[in-house]
């Protein structure tokens, strides 16, 4: 591991100032950054430890929404009674991620900003446009079973590994950031960038900006949500594919319907094409399959990950069917 400077700011203002320095990386729970530093995939000049900043609240606001601090541990957020009652998809996604030990350390902010688990990114002996721009992407002709089919580019087909962020996408959550120019609030689609020709630039965060929390908007009474994940082993694995589905019924009609997908794209993927087709209808298995197939019309699957398309389509259809049956 390369030598680096360790800084521990005492307040958010100091954290913002330190985060703006060249070569700085923020340390929350350390469950991703420390691993990547050991591998040499991350070589920060300055590690800014923000783990002790007072961003640990889970607070319901006057409008029924919830504000979650960036340093809230994943296990604590999953167990929070307000989250479990009103945002079950989020609690389920958190519990589906990693092991209990990791959830006890991982933070909300760090979960959002974790790097891809693409093997080529983590192996410094291999080319990777995300880690070393311009060096190439061997994944397209190499090992790509776990990699993306939507929103990818010829430069990068890595997927975003977060379970939590998939649920947040379906919940229309927003991310609060603090930087030298003040505070901003971003949707997840505004936060994450698709790889294009610059896969090394993953977010729209500006120099010195620190994620301070997440805002969960209030939901209309009767809204149901859930998260389901397909993985290679039940105990502990990243998603092969996953989905978070939120729906509000008026009889058989889905008056509100949101579908987010994981394991298929460089960011949590809102299936807006499928949503537009299905919202305001009484979905059937066939109509859900047709709508998801329309969503994947723009997909660019490769030989070893093409199975993700039909797998995701069936997962969403089954998940929505479960919500119709009163599963949540």
Number of strands: 12
User: What's the alpha carbon Rg, rounded to whole Å?
Assistant: 19 Å
Q: Residue-averaged pLDDT, rounded?
A: 96
**CATH topology of one domain, anyone?**
Enolase-like, domain 1
CATH H-tier superfamily of one domain: CO dehydrogenase flavoprotein, C-terminal domain
Number of helices: 13
Strand content: 15-25%
> What level of helicity do the residues show?
25-40%
Uncertain stretches of 5 or more adjacent residues: none
CATH classification class of one domain:
Alpha Beta
**Name of the CATH architecture of one domain:** 2-Layer Sandwich
| Alpha-carbon distance between the two ends | 47 Å
Question: Which tags fit this structure?
Answer:
alpha+beta; FAD-bd_PCMH; four-stranded antiparallel sheet; 328 residues; FAD-bd_PCMH-like_sf; 13 helices; globular; Xanthine dehydrogenase family protein subunit M; oxidoreductase; five-stranded antiparallel sheet; Enolase-like, domain 1; 20% strand; single chain
Question: Would you kindly provide a written description of the structure presented here, covering whatever features stand out?
Answer:
The protein is an alpha+beta fold and 328 residues long. It has a domain at 223-324: Enolase-like, domain 1 (2-Layer Sandwich). It contains 13 helices and 12 strands. The protein has a 5-stranded antiparallel sheet with strand order 4-5-8-6-7. Strands 9-10-11-12 form a 4-stranded antiparallel sheet. The protein has a 3-stranded parallel sheet with strand order 1-3-2, covered by helices on one side. The longest helix is centred in the C-terminal third of the chain and has 17 residues, at 308-324. The chain starts with a strand and ends with a helix. The model has no long low-confidence stretch (mean pLDDT 96). This is Xanthine dehydrogenase family protein subunit M. InterPro entries: CO_DH_flav_C, CO_DH_flav_C_dom_sf, Diverse_Substr_Oxidored, FAD-bd_PCMH, FAD-bd_PCMH-like_sf, FAD-bd_PCMH_sub1, FAD-bd_PCMH_sub2, Mopterin_DH_FAD-bd. GO terms for molecular function: FAD binding; oxidoreductase activity. Keywords: Oxidoreductase.
């Amino acid at each position: 591991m390369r030598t680096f400077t360790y800084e521990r700011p005492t307040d958010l203002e100091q954290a913002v100032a330190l985060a703006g320095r060249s070569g700085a990386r923020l340390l929350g729970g350390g469950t991703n950054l420390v691993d990547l530093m050991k591998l040499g995939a991350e070589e920060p000049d300055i590690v800014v430890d923000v783990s002790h900043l007072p961003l640990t609240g889970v607070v319901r606001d006057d409008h029924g929404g919830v504000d979650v601090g960036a340093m809230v541990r994943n296990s604590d957020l999953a167990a929070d009674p307000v989250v479990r009652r009103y945002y079950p998809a989020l609690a389920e996604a958190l519990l589906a991620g990693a092991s209990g030990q990791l959830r006890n350390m991982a933070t909300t902010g760090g979960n959002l900003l974790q790097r891809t688990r693409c093997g080529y990114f983590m192996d410094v002996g291999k080319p990777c446009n995300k880690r070393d721009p311009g060096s190439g992407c061997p994944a397209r002709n190499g090992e790509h079973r776990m990699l993306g089919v939507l929103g990818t580019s010829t430069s990068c087909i890595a997927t975003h590994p977060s379970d939590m962020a998939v649920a947040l996408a379906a919940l229309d959550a927003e991310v609060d950031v603090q930087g030298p120019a003040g505070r901003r609030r971003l949707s997840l689609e505004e936060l994450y960038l698709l790889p294009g020709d610059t896969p090394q630039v993953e977010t729209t965060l500006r120099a010195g900006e620190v994620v301070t929390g997440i805002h969960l908007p209030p939901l209309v009474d009767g809204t149901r949500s859930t998260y389901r994940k397909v993985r290679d082993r039940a105990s502990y694995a990243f998603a092969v594919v996953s989905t978070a589905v939120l729906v509000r019924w008026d009889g058989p009609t889905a008056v509100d319907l949101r579908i987010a997908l994981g394991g298929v794209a460089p960011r949590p993927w809102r299936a807006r094409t499928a949503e537009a087709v299905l919202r305001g209808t009484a979905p059937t298995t066939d109509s859900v399959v047709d709508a998801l197939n329309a969503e994947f019309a723009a997909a660019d699957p490769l030989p070893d990950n093409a199975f993700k398309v039909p797998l995701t389509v069936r997962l969403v259809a089954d998940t929505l069917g479960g919500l119709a049956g009163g599963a949540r």
